[in-house]
């Protein structure tokens, strides 16, 4: 690998694409060589996001106009909508097989193509690539990510539930039949496309559940919790939309096993994440706030007592655009390209 890697961002005009660019502009080991946005093809990035006015960046191009073999890219971030990504990545890796890919869509997260078809409503279009894809939750799959060509960046909701729960499931410390995840996300989790339901007057001063009983992220949770437990796990999960720009807060209700109480669960999490740069376990009894992780790649986790014996309340907070998407994607890139894992994503949260 040269001193600097040539990087492309597909779907640069969306929130996760622009967040990738924001983070990568301060990365000392990358050059931004390609930016795509089909509807905005031909425009400058500053025309879409004026905050990038001071920076010399390539103009936006349409994906169909790219000659992958001659593009000379070391790694591509794919921030396209699910359902469109499999065919794009299949073409890219067929014609430029030495290029690495971090996919931020849901198209390669589910290892079972039948499960993908069931949850997303169409057949998987790149099953051979699915078999080599590595799920990109760094704190769980770090070693596999280092040698991967294709990494499926996890979902924002799922990251905010898997990080606090997987160590507890692996330790056999909680009853996996009694996991309840109550999660809330800011508006950027719905993407940047114009939608009537996302207008300011439609969401301001309101708060609602959605995808109740059948949200697509359930498939990810089922998959990763079942792997951790060694048996089928089907948690209860309900997402909510909150009229704020950034952030996810998960409030999770669990029952300890074999006499393990909240203090023991806290100790397991504290030990699991003792040396992790981007997961911080708060002192026992404290709960995380979304504003304390805003703009950072951090996940804060807290554990508190439930008033009922044997039960505990586990809280987790992250920025859905950073650790829940683009920051985690850069963390994956750093591992895939042999860079220090924390490079360019170690910023402290913005407050207030």
Automatic annotation (TrEMBL):
Coiled-coil parts of chain: none
Residue intervals of the Semialdehyde dehydrogenase NAD-binding domain: 6-148
Pathway: Amino-acid biosynthesis; L-arginine biosynthesis; N(2)-acetyl-L-ornithine from L-glutamate: step 3/4
Enzyme class: oxidoreductase
Subcellular location: Cytoplasm
Family as reported in the entry's similarity comment: Belongs to the NAGSA dehydrogenase family. Type 1 subfamily.
Name of the protein in question: N-acetyl-gamma-glutamyl-phosphate reductase
Phylogenetic placement of the source organism: Bacteria, Pseudomonadati, Pseudomonadota, Alphaproteobacteria, Hyphomicrobiales
Gene that this polypeptide is encoded by: argC
